[in-house]
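The following block was generated as part of the benchmark described in Methods. Ligand: flavin-adenine dinucleotide.
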Amino acid sequence: MRVDEVIVVGGGIAGCATAYYLARDGVAVTLVEQAGLSGLASSANAGSLHAQIPHDPFRNLGPEWAQNYAQAIPFYMASLDIWRTLEAELGTDLEIGFGGGLLVGATEAEMAEIAAKAQVERAAGLPMELLDSRSLREHAPYLSESLIGGALCPIEGKANPMLVAPAFARAAQAAGAQIASYSGPAALRREAGAYTVTTDTGRYTADRIVIAAGSASGALTQSLGVTLGVQAFPIQVSVTEPAAPLIKHLVYSAGEKLTMKQTRAGSILIGGGWSARVDAEGRPVVDVENLAQNLSLARAAVPAIGGLKLVRSWAAFVNGTDDWLPILGELPGAPGVFLNYVPWMGFTGGPAAARAIASMVQGKAPPMAAPFDAFRPRAG
Ligand SMILES: Cc1cc2nc3c(=O)[nH]c(=O)nc-3n(C[C@H](O)[C@H](O)[C@H](O)COP(=O)(O)OP(=O)(O)OC[C@H]3O[C@@H](n4cnc5c(N)ncnc54)[C@H](O)[C@@H]3O)c2cc1C
């Protein structure tokens, strides 16, 4: 019988990448996933690689929130460093591109908010270049004339979310990890100095567990008596038919919620965190009114997309926290159980979070400069 040193629960980017880094370090690890690998947020997301403070909460939650959130900037920058060499490391194309992130404004008030946000970001070490109307047009001639300026974060980019967690899983298996997908939901129990993980297909015992179950992580920590402020929100994204190369950047609006980018295949992904609905069975479904608003903002920002057909819109639960900070580390009161939970931008933060958690599980400090103490799980 195989004796695992670590069991990872959850097969999204958080779990697959954690299994990879553990296996690469020579740790015997098994990942259990209730359904197919990367079936939820890790494939359904918009593929943006962010480092800047998200504009919507910056506007709505205020300067104190932004100062607190800015602690996460070095963490996302460390993750982007990993993304830069990830294709070489995993030996596969992930459609990663670093065209830069462009936050654009249409009014003087929006430009003032952009400048205020850039000041906080620069103080945290993030490169942000303010652009007037002329330089905005030089960088991004595809943008509407109604936009009067913006800020460029040159290190931001995009990747294809459907490729990434499966690539981590393949590399984890190649390094010796066991992956048990379609296992049904795992239940956790503490028993005589170790933990048991029971699924429909197996029973595992280990003294170290990593919970990487996205928005379902709260139920698992709760089963060990630890309540954390993890949340789930239904949001939606859309994609157009392919077009000739047009949008080079990851575009954000400082007005209403909007993000846009062009994929390698040429289609335009349109999102920004618009809410979806939840149906009677508890499944996320597209809210058509919000879709219409999202599309009309996209068309106002980049008029040339007006002639494109929309191919698909979809909805999924994104994992959140009140303060938007990651929760990474050992659970209070459950020694040996680690949580890998990056809210809202868990695709971007996935590689750094997984690398950090794999180190913590082995009793080592994470090999990147980020304030992990601020991210420690605290019972709520
Ligand atoms: C529409 C949308 C757009 C987004 N856009 C972006 C973006 O552009 N950029 C960005 O950085 N982030 C984005 N995000 C956020 C990002 O996708 C998530 O933060 C990230 O994917 C979370 O990864 P995860 O592995 O923690 O969770 P998930 O991908 O949700 O994976 C958790 C896994 O755990 C499994 N699981 C749960 N409970 C159990 C159990 N008891 N037993 C076994 N398995 C279990 C689930 O089946 C699932 O496969 C977006 C999210 C959404 C929904």
